[in-house]
Structures are given as structure tokens and as C-alpha cells.
Amino acid sequence: MAKGNRSESSTAGSNSRDVVLDAARTLITSRGYDGMSISDLCAQSGLPPSSIYYHFGNKLGVLAALLERTFHDLHTLFPNPSSFDELAPLERFERWVTGACNALDQRPDYLRLLLAISVGPHKDTETVRNTVRRIRDYAHASWVEALTPVFAPDGGEDDKAFVDQLAVLGRAITDGLSVTNSFDGMSYSAHITPFVALVRSHAEQRGRGSVRDS
User: Fold this and answer.
1) pLDDT for the residue 108
2) How far apart are CA 169 and CA 146, in angstroms?
3) Among 137, 158, 132, 11, which residue's Cα sits nearest to residue 66?
4) Per-residue model confidence as pLDDT tens digits over 119-166
């Protein structure tokens, strides 16, 4: 019986934790981290301050836990470029970026949250900085993995450097699209065609246009 009570208590605790994190995501996305107070979290989540302090210690602990959950969600939600390895390089890239944009359209709050966190003074807190860096490094690595078969299939240093530059651009474009999505209501998916055309044009200029049929 006691074991059952501990299990129920653990489940309730986990649910309360998720409720607080959901509330924090909503508040940070709309107000920024500095505009969120413990009293706001209580009002948004319906839980008392004691529950928030118990699970997270303080407001920064809420932010760190929210970032960790976002990192996990990104892994789950985003397609892996290797999922399309059976396709020719350019088609593989197009399928991957289409899947990524569709995922962002499903949960546009993810990038809004990261951007809101990345520009505040708390960005220099070690826990926040390290977690944001891991999320962004993961995104960058995905872009590199998607672009490498198109531009650097033979692993040349110049080609790899170009892939890295294009991956930075791709990540910057999706960062910017989070603002466009928020203010103008335009979807990420609406920008797939022009970005794929840009990549295809670069591939042709660098003599990689034929990789589509390889």
C-alpha cells in the first residue's frame, strides 16, 4: 500500500512539475524571463509557491528545467537527416528541411522561447548558457549533416567550411522566421521553396548540381 502511495505521489509530483513548466513557457514566450515572477507562475499554473520552490528551488531553476525539457522535445520532434539517406543529396536535404519546418509549425513556441531566453541578462548564467549552447549546437549539427552530402561528399576542407557557413545561415534564417511567424503569422513551411532554391543554386554554382541524380 505504501509503495502504491509513493508511486501516486511521484506521478502527482511529475504532473505538477510539468504544469509549472507549461506555465513558464507561456509566460516567458509572452513576457520574457525577466517579466515572469513566482506569483505569475502561481497564477498561471494554479499551484502554490511552495510547490514551485519544492520542484525547482527558484525562478532560475524553473528556467533551467524548461530549457532541458525543450532540448528533449527538440530531439523528439525534429527529423534526423539520416532518416532520408536513401534519397539523392538535394532531395534528402529538401525532405529534411520540410520535416524540420513542419515540426516548427507544430510548436512555434520553441524558437520563440529560445530567442527570448538568449537575449536577456540571464543568458550569461552558466546553466542557461550551457543548455542553450547544447540546443543550438544540436541544431547546427543537424544542418551540417543535412548539407554535407550536397556540398562536401568527399570531405574537402573548403567544402566543409562552406557547409559550416551555410549551416549558420540556415539556423539564422529559422531564428528570424520565429519573429516573422510571431508578428506576421507566416508559417515556417511557407519558406521551404525559396531556401531549397538557394541551396540548389549554390550546388549548381559549385559544380554539385548533378548530385541530385547521383
Assistant:
1) 82
2) 13
3) 132
4) 766 777 787 888 888 888 988 999 999 999 999 999 899 999 999 999
Give me 173's grid cell.
534564417
- Put simply, whether the predicted model's pTM sits higher than 0.85 gets the answer no
* Residues in the chain, total: 214
Task: Return the C-alpha cell found at 109.
Answer: 513556441
Q: Taking the CA of residue 118 as centre, how many other CA atoms within 13 Å lie in the half-sphere pointing to its CB? A: 13
Distance CA 189, CA 152 (A): 26
Mark 141-178 as b/e (b = at least 16 C-beta within 10 Å): ebbbbbbbbbbbeeeeeebbebbbebbeebeeebeebb
Give the whole-angstrom CA distance, residue 86 versus residue 30.
41
